[in-house]
Structure formats: C-alpha cells, structure tokens
Amino acid sequence: MLLWRTAADLLPSKEMLSSQWGIKTDSYQLDVMQKEQFLLFGALALDLVWKARNQAFKQCAQEMERKPRHGTLKLNCDIAMGDNSAYVAVVARDWRGVLVFANVKKVDTNILAQAEEAIH
C-alpha cells in the first residue's frame, strides 16, 4: 500500500500533462493505425515493467529466505504504515532457520523515515 501512496500521481494523466506541464493533448490527432500502435506499445511497455517488478520481487524474496552463516543470526525488519501510526516488526533467526527473537513495536508517526529510525 505504501508504494501506491508514494507513487500517487506519478504517471502522467491527460489532466496532469495539460495543467502541470503545459502540454496540450487535444492537439495530437492520431489515425486508427497510430492509435492501435500506440496502445500496443503502451501494453508492451507495461508488460516489461510488470515483469521487471516481478523479477525484482522474486530476487528479494530469495534473499530473505537465505540462511545466515553458521553461528550467526539474521534479522528481518518490516514496517506497516497507518494513517496516524506505524508498526515495526523484527524477526531474528539462527543459521538453522530457527526463530530466536520476534518483536513488534507501535510507533506514533505516519512518516516513514521516523518509523525506520525506530528500528535502530
């Protein structure tokens, strides 16, 4: 959910192009073939972005699943942001993957940087 809030108004809409960037979209006239090519290009571009996102997510998940070296611990942290507060979770596992420690802490902030500081 945080990504969607962070990326709000990131992609240019017709209104944003004209109001914020001064681009008049009504002046562009495309024939049927150009519209089909444009839509196909857009669909392919979105498909590539989606595949790249999935690949990055998969690599991140594999990294999280990797066990630490013998005799060490691995810490995983996450933050869930709400409207007026955040929850910080920390999990520690040993080299065998056995849970050693887990904790959740409520932080009275809705600013991500402040919630991240609660981890330290």
TrEMBL record:
Protein name stated in the entry: Uncharacterized protein
